[in-house]
Amino acid sequence: MRIAFLGPRGTFTEAALHEFQRRGVIDANAEAVAAANPREAVHWVREQQVDLACVAIENSVDGPVTPTFDALAEADGVQIYAEVDLAIEFALMSKGIGLEQAKKISTHPVAYQQIRQYLDAHAPGIEFVAASSNAAAARAVAEGEVDLAAAPAHAAQVYGLSVVADQVADVPDARTRFVLVGRRGKPAAATGSDRSSVMFTLHNKPGALVSALGEFAMRGVDLTRIESRPTRRGLGTYRFHVDILGHINDQPVSEALRALYLASETLTFLGSWPAASIEAIPQLYSPSALQASRDWLDAMKEGK
């Protein structure tokens, strides 16, 4: 099994991948393949270059990880199968200089938003240089491109750096949710503590979004997150991403999604998976499993 993650080595996404392994969700001997961004990781899944992608989807401080949502929208035929959330704290690391000598700091833009207050207090005026990942920032320090990086503490060991400050976070107990994305297949059995996700577009008419969300409200289905992203077809056109508390096989959820499907311009089911306790993901890649998934999706569209 090959699993893509946001690289290089030393990212929080790699730590999430290891947590999935620790919990027995994926094989401990799976090959980890570093991707440059979530889009590349999910694209590799679609093109069957890897079996799964581990990507960040939501942060408790900065909100949605929009590159992941866009990647899911672009990659037809993929689905979410499991999730894990990790506590997020940063270490500031250098090649031996102190915080007061540092002129430039690099980290991922999402991470930067989580440490800005700390930097304003302890390193006012320091220049921020955006990096593709926190670990890429640590590598940039090792290569002499910047003075300081904010990254997971273990990145200092990976790149031979010294930790200047540890447990840095403007908001205590910040967490990031990561998901495993695979090729489309039949969801795992309901556990009683599940999350489902869909993305959809609506016809441009008054009250369309209120009516769509009302399908969940009238059936007592809880929405845990709703986001909108531009469709890139023109100004004022949006694609909505919704997370639902429950499983597609729960009657209220399936009825709400069936009604939403009939009212939507497009609707894509992104999976149902355990939200609290994580069980082993199902066998996704055999021809029989894929055909069963197609049959299941056809039956859902026909209202069976």
Automatic annotation (TrEMBL):
Pathway as given in its UniProt record: Amino-acid biosynthesis; L-phenylalanine biosynthesis; phenylpyruvate from prephenate: step 1/1
UniProt keywords, alphabetically: Amino-acid biosynthesis, Aromatic amino acid biosynthesis, Lyase, Phenylalanine biosynthesis
The protein's enzyme class: lyase
Keyword Lyase assigned: yes
EC number(s) on file: 4.2.1.51
Protein's name in the database: Prephenate dehydratase
UniProt GO BP: L-phenylalanine biosynthetic process
UniProt keyword annotation of Phosphoprotein present: no
Organism domain of life: Bacteria
Molecular functions (GO terms): prephenate dehydratase activity
Reaction catalyzed: prephenate + H(+) = 3-phenylpyruvate + CO2 + H2O
